[in-house]
Automatic annotation (TrEMBL):
Source species, domain of life: Bacteria
Record organism: Amycolatopsis roodepoortensis
Organismal lineage: Bacteria, Bacillati, Actinomycetota, Actinomycetes, Pseudonocardiales
The name this protein goes by in its record: Uncharacterized protein
């Protein structure tokens, strides 16, 4: 199985791992038009996937962040719906 393998919703295993990290409260996101994702304090190695997740509305910024700062990342309702079956299967 490689990183390009897809799940039924069309997301890579890497994208799903990023969503799980957000769900677990381990991720921060920069307040920016192209938000970067940090997991466990380290920048994600695949920021293009992080940008796609944000632009697709699966992860979001909490209200009130200062541009350029890092804030806790949140799952949108759609993101939560994608991650819930993965959490119950584990």
């Amino acid at each position: 199985m490689n990183e390009r393998a897809q799940d039924p919703e069309g997301l890579s295993h890497r994208a799903l791992a990023m969503l799980r990290a957000v769900a677990q409260g381990r991720a921060e996101i920069t307040v920016s038009l192209e938000p970067d994702l940090y997991v466990d304090g380290l920048p994600c190695s695949d920021q293009s996937t992080a940008h796609r997740l944000a632009h697709a509305g699966l992860i979001r910024l909490p209200a009130g962040g200062v541009p350029g700062s890092r804030v806790p990342a949140e799952l949108s309702e759609t993101g939560q719906e994608l991650v819930e079956p993965l959490a119950t299967a584990a």
